[in-house]
Amino acid sequence: DAGITQSPRYKITETGRQVTLMCHQTWSHSYMFWYRQDLGHGLRLIYYSAAADITDKGEVPDGYVVSRSKTENFPLTLESATRSQTSVYFCASNGGSINEQFFGPGTRLTVL
Amino acid sequence: AQSVTQLDSQVPVFEEAPVELRCNYSSSVSVYLFWYVQYPNQGLQLLLKYLSGSTLVESINGFEAEFNKSQTSFHLRKPSVHISDTAEYFCAVSRGSNYKLTFGKGTLLTVNP
Fold first, then answer.
1. N or C end of chain B: which has fewer CB within 10 A?
2. Is there a contact between B99 and A98 if contact means CB atoms under 8 Å apart?
3. Residues B100, A44: C-beta atoms closer than 8 Å
4. Interval B28-42: pLDDT, tens
5. Whole-Å CA distances, B10 to A11, B19, B20, B108
6. Which of chain A's residues have a Cβ under 8 Å away from the Cβ of B34?
7. Contact at 8 Å (CB) between B38 and B87?
8. Into how many domains does chain A fold?
9. How much is the pLDDT for B2?
10. What is the pLDDT of residues A59-107, one digit of tens each?
11. What's the sign of the alpha-carbon dihedral B53, B8, B43, A73?
12. pLDDT digit string, tens, across residues A17-68
């Protein structure tokens, strides 16, 4: 399917477990982003990537790891999940112009 | 650093009434401004954007926003809302150099019959 997809859409895990959220886009966009959405905080940038093998921290990177070995994929890993990481996670991409970011449908993560 | 303030966290209105969702930003450099809409259980979609040129920008579904540089504002307006406009609206700003967006905390617009 064309566009930007995220998997899984819903995930329940336990404190201390490793979790990887997947993001895939079919447009060959250079820029990709991970946000978390929490009530009262809006969307906050976790990490972003300007191209394959180029990543940088956003506003709230602690506890998260990213990689970008291929242009189309940008996985987000929680190495040891904590309850404070319960959130809705959105992936987005941008083709490199001053234009809109395209958002995925989100992953709702619950850490028990 | 830039920041975005959405002055109202919730705005309840009746159908066919006018609405204004307020957004102010702070930045020491030129910025690009966006409004995104999020319908329940969905991702964000671009509603409209200001990049340059005319300070009044419009969306295809009747929303408009005006860039006011002196007041550092980008308020979103619609003269007559519909039930289907019920959603959360996010204002965002970008400096453009790295395409990162800084979002406001969102305004939940609830349109009642």
1. C
2. yes
3. no
4. 677 889 999 999 888
5. 29, 12, 11, 5
6. 100
7. yes
8. 1
9. 76
10. 999 999 999 999 999 999 999 999 999 999 999 998 766 667 899 999 9
11. positive
12. 999 999 999 988 999 999 999 988 889 999 999 999 999 999 999 999 999 9
Measure CA A37 to chain center: 11
| Closest Cβ–Cβ partner in B32, B43, B103 for A105 | B43
Q: What is the 3-state secondary structure (H, E, C) of chain A?
A: CCCEEEECCEEEECCCCCEEEEEEECCCCCEEEEEEEECCCEEEEEEEEEECCEEEECCCCCCEEECCCCCCECCEEECCCCHHHCEEEEEEEECCCCCCCEECCCEEEEEC
Q: Give chain A positions within 8 Å (CB) of B105.
A: 40-42
Structural domain for B30, as ranges: 3-112
Q: Which of chain A's residues have a Cβ under 8 Å away from the Cβ of B9?
A: 40
> Domain span at residue A106?
4-111
Total of domains in chain B: 1
CATH code: domain of residue B65: 2.60.40.10
In three-state secondary structure terms, B46 is strand
In this structure, what CATH number is given to the domain that contains residue A87? 2.60.40.10
Tokens representing residue B35 in the block: 């409004």
